[in-house]
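[job 0417] fold request received: Sensor histidine kinase
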Amino acid sequence: MRRVLDIAAATLACALMLLAAPASAEPQSAPQHLAAASWLVTTTDRYTAPPASIDSANLPGPWHPLTLPSTLPRGDRRADDIDTTWIRVTVPASAQTSGPLAIYGARVTVEGTIAVYVNGRLAHRAQQQGPLWDSPFTPLWITLDSDTDAAPVREILVRLEHQAHSRVALSSLWFGASDALHSRYYTRLWLQRELPATLNAAFLLVGLFSLAVWLIRRHKYEYLLFFYLAAASFVGHLHYYLSLPVTGGWFAWLTANALFWLVTVLHLFLRKLHGRPLVWLTRVLVGVSAAITVLSMPLVAILPVYPSTSVLVPLVYAVVVVMAATVCIVAAACSWRRSREGLLLAAGLGLCTLLGVPDWLMHNHVASAEGWFTGAYTNAVTFCMFGILMARRYVNAIRGMENSNASLEQRLQKCEAELEIIHSQLREAANRQTISDERQRLMQDMHDGLGSSLINAIRSVDQTDISTQKISQILKDCLDDLKLTIDSMEPIEADLLMLLGSLRFRLEPRLEGTGITLRWEIRDLPPLPWLEPGSALSILRIIQESIANILRHTPATEIRLSTRHDVEGDGVQVTVSDNGGGFDLAATLQSPGGRGIRNQQRRARSVNGRVDWACDGSGTRFTLWLPLTRA
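[job 0417] inference complete; emitting C-alpha cells
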C-alpha cells in the first residue's frame, strides 16, 4: 500500500511539473510585475458599451496615484448612478519581449462590466451590464496578438463600469511572454475556481446518492438531511459555475440565503448525532433563516440598496459566521462525552467557520485583492467529516456483524453439541426399537411358520399310522422355513436379484435329490428402495410356496424361474413355471387345501404386489408382480 501511495504521489508531482513547465523550449525573459498605477472616475446615468479605442489623456478629471493590489473607495452619489473607474498602468520599456504576450491578474472585483485596453485599443471585454458574478473567482487573462509590426506595449487601461455605491478592487498585473505566465494563471484558476467547483459537484453527487438511499429507507431521515446539506452547499457556491450574464437580484438572493439554510441543516444533523433536542436553538435558526429569506427577496425590496452584493454579501457572511459559531459551540458542549461523531462534526463546522472569515474579509475589502476565498474549501472539510463518519459507521457495522457472527457461531456450536447428544439418544432409541421390532417379527414369523410346521410334525408323530417319509418331509419344510427366516435378515441393499440368489442357494441342493432341473433365467432389475427384511421374507415365502406346490402336487421335471422389468406397469415380475400338467385354480381356491395359495395372495398384498396363475395342459405359470415404489 505504501508503494502504491508513493507511485501516486510521484505521478501527481510529474503532472504538476508538466503543467508548470513552459510550452516553448526557447528561453524567455522574466515577466514584469506591474504594481504602480493611477486611477480616475467618470459618471454616467446608465451602462454603456466600451468604445473600440480610447486615449487615456482625453479622459476628464485628474489622475490619482495607486499601488496595486488596491480597493478603490465607494462613490458618494445616488445608487442609480453608474460610475466608470479607470485604472491606468504604465508598462516599462524593460518589460518588452518577443513572442506571444499576455497580461495576467489574480482578481478583478466589480459589480459590472470589465474592459481592458492595450495601447488605447480594446483587447478584452466581459459582461454587458450588471454584476459579474464569477469575476472574484476567475483570474484575468489576456493574450495579445503576436504582430511583429505592432508597437511595443506602453499602457494598459482597465475600464470598470459599476453602480456608484459599490466598490471595485484590482490585483497587481503581470505582463510578459504567454509561456512564462501560463503556469501562474492556470495554478490560480485551478485552486481558485476549478478545484472548489469539482469538490462542490462531488459533494452534490454524494448527496444525490444519499437521497436515493433515503427513498428506499424512509425511516433513516439523516440521509435526507445529508442531501439537503449537499444541495444547499451547491446552491451557495453557484458562482463557480456561472459565467453567463445575470442581471436580476434572484441569483444573489438564492446563493446568499443558501448559506443560512446550510448552517440550519448542519444543526439538525448535529442534533441527530448528540441526541439533544435543543428546541430553542432550532427555532431561532429556522426563524432567522426564514426571516432573512423573506426580507431579502427582490419582490419585497425592504433593503434599500438591494440587490447590490457589495452590501448584501458582507452582511450575509457576518450573520452566517455568527450562526455557525453558535451552532459549533453548542454542538461541542452537547456532544462532550456523549457523541464522538458529534464532536468530530462540530470541529469540522468550526474549521468551516474559520475558513469563511477570509471570505468575509475579502467581500468587505479588508483583505488584499490577491488573497484567497477559502470558504470554497468548506465543501472539502464537510466532505471529509462526513466521509469519516460514514467510514466509522461502516467499520462499526462490520465489527458488529463480526461480533454477531461470532456469537451466532458459538450458539450454533452449542446447539450442534446439544443436537448431537439428542441425535445419539434418538439413535440409541431407534436401535432399541429396531431390535425390538425385529425380535417381534422373528417371533411372529417363527410362530406362524416354523412353529406351525413343528406343531404339524408333532401331531403327525402322535399318529401311529404316519410314514417315516412324511415325517421327513415335514421336518424338511420346517428347516426350509427356518432358512428363509435367516436369509431375510441378510443385507440385500434393495436388490431383488440378491434375494433370489440366496433362494437359489437354498433350493438347488434339495432339487438335485428329486431329479428336477432348475432353469435360472434372471435379467437385470432396477432396485426396490422399499425392500427390507419383513417384505423380503414375504417375497421368499411366496416363491417358496409356489415351488413347494410344484414339488408336492405335480410330476414336474423342470422348474423355470425368470425375471422381467415391467416398464408399462412401473414394476418388476418374478415368474415360476413348470411342466407338471397344471391344476384347476378355481377348484383349489374353494377346497380346504387352498390355504397355501390364499397365503400367497395375502403376502403379495402386504407388499403392494399381486400374484397370478396361468394353467394349461402342459404346466402352470405363476407370476409375482412387485412395484418399484410403495405408497
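[job 0417] notes: The two ends are 66 Å apart (CA to CA). The CA atoms of residues 516 and 557 lie 5 Å apart.
[job 0417] exit 0
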